[in-house]
């Protein structure tokens, strides 16, 4: 049963007036948060704690509506359950979203208020960074609760989780190359990256070192300019539409927000592999069949982008970077196993990944 929780003590007691659809995925708990003094409006969604406390980042984004924010939290938290299960972590899935433009409304007071909502859950939800939030933000959030990861090394944390997120995506891309072309390298391949922010720009570096040709785009001109300044050999195109139509593209890497693979984008996609860091890349479940029908290999997003959550989970036990990198390197093997399961069962890779994750969660519930 889904529990829509009121505000905890220490806030103004309000909740967001928004629509929650119970059919959105069997979540255990959804907390709608509002603190008028700081201007905070947020949603914390806990999908599952079958494997342990729900773990997932905090997204700070200017949503078009409160309903859109709730639905994003529901989708993202469900994805975290599956991601954590396949990453071999003893954590369930959760996610939080803060509503608003972080460049305009993010303040210390707001982050402290958000931390109080996390504290009210008593450890059922462990938070970290996501789009729009950074290590410095988590240091502030941690001042009002003890269930915050992704903090700075100076405050006992692991630092930026984007480092291992990018590394894990690169391992998933290598596995995709192995499955499709018989060689685990991107050398000589053309890779298009949509979104060169925290994760995307690090992925560029891995690919260039591996000998790939890289094409990029981003809605932020400064993000593109930074990559081009550091790596002049990288080509930039105007937008995602131009990127996915790029002639000779071998791999498409969505590394921004979700929904990149849709009824509009898949028919014109020139790449033979899709492997990127963005969450919830499929606009709807039927899109993966469209990819399969076109002979495009899809590396499930929540499998390949698990490096970051591996890093922040380790922080709870005393962070060791080398240990985390070794775990993240296993994304290569996990991705290959999913491709093999998909082939054996005659199903798309995302369905194979779901089956493996659901199997682990079901076994945990029975034990």
Structural notes for this entry:
It contains 14 helices and 13 strands. With 367 residues, the protein is of the alpha/beta class. The chain folds into two domains: 3-80 and 91-152, 3-Layer(aba) Sandwich (Rossmann fold); 162-305 and 333-359, 3-Layer(aba) Sandwich (Rossmann fold), CATH 3.40.50. Strand 12 (273-274), helix 9 (286-293) and strand 13 form a beta-alpha-beta unit.
Chain-wise SSE layout:
Blueprint: E1 3-5, E2 29-35, E3 40-48, E4 54-55, E5 58-61, H1 66-86, E6 92-99, H2 102-105, H3 108-120, E7 125-126, H4 135-141, H5 162-181, E8 190-194, H6 200-209, E9 213-217, H7 221-230, E10 235-236, H8 240-244, E11 251-254, E12 273-274, H9 286-293, E13 297-298, H10 301-304, H11 307-315, H12 321-329, H13 331-345, H14 349-366
Parallel strand pairs: 1-2, 4-6, 4-7, 5-6, 8-9, 8-11, 9-10, 11-12, 12-13
Antiparallel strand pairs: 2-3, 3-6
Helix pairs in contact: 1-14, 3-4, 5-6, 5-11, 5-12, 5-13, 11-12, 13-14
Describe what is shown at a glance.
The chain has helices at residues 66-86, 102-105, 108-120, 135-141, 162-181, 200-209, 221-230, 240-244, 286-293, 301-304, 307-315, 321-329, 331-345, 349-366, and strands at 3-5, 29-35, 40-48, 54-55, 58-61, 92-99, 125-126, 190-194, 213-217, 235-236, 251-254, 273-274, 297-298.
The CATH architecture designation of the largest domain is: 3-Layer(aba) Sandwich
Mean pLDDT: 92
- CATH topology (fold) name of the largest domain: Rossmann fold
Distance between the termini: 21 Å
Helix content: 40-55%
| Broad structural category | alpha/beta
Most strands sheet: 7 strands, mixed
In total, how many beta strands?
13
């Amino acid at each position: 049963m889904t529990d829509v929780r009121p505000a905890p003590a220490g806030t103004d007691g309000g909740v967001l007036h928004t629509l929650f659809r119970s059919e959105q995925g069997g979540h255990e708990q959804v907390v709608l948060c509002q603190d008028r003094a700081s201007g905070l409006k947020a949603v914390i969604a806990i999908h599952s704690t079958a494997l342990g406390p729900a773990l997932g980042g905090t997204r700070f984004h200017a949503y078009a509506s409160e309903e859109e924010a709730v639905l994003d939290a529901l989708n993202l938290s469900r994805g975290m359950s599956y991601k954590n299960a396949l990453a071999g972590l003893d954590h369930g899935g959760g996610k939080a979203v803060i509503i608003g433009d972080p460049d305009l409304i993010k303040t210390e007071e707001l982050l402290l208020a958000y931390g109080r909502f996390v504290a009210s859950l008593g450890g059922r939800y462990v938070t970290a960074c996501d789009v729009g939030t950074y290590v410095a933000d988590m240091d502030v959030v941690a001042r009002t609760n003890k269930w915050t990861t992704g903090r700075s090394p100076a405050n006992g944390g692991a630092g930026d989780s984007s480092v291992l997120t990018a590394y894990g995506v690169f391992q998933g891309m290598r596995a995709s190359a192995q499955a499709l072309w018989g060689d685990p390298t991107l050398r000589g391949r053309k890779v298009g990256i949509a979104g060169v922010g925290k994760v995307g720009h690090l992925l560029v570096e891995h690919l260039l070192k591996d000998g790939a040709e890289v094409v990029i785009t981003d809605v932020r001109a400064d993000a593109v300019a930074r990559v081009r300044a550091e790596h002049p050999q990288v080509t930039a195109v105007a937008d995602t539409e131009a990127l996915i139509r790029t002639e000779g593209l071998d791999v498409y890497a969505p590394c921004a927000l979700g929904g990149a693979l849709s009824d509009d984008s898949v028919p014109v996609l020139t790449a033979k592999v899709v492997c990127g860091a963005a969450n919830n890349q499929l606009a709807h479940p039927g899109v993966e069949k469209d990819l399969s029908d076109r002979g495009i290999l899809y590396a499930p997003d929540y499998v390949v982008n698990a490096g970051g959550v591996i890093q922040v989970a380790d922080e709870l036990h005393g962070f060791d970077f080398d240990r985390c990198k070794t775990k993240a390197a296993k994304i290569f093997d996990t991705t290959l196993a999913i491709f093999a399961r998909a082939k054996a069962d005659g199903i798309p890779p995302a369905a194979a990944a779901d089956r493996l994750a659901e199997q682990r969660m079901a076994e945990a519930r029975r034990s």
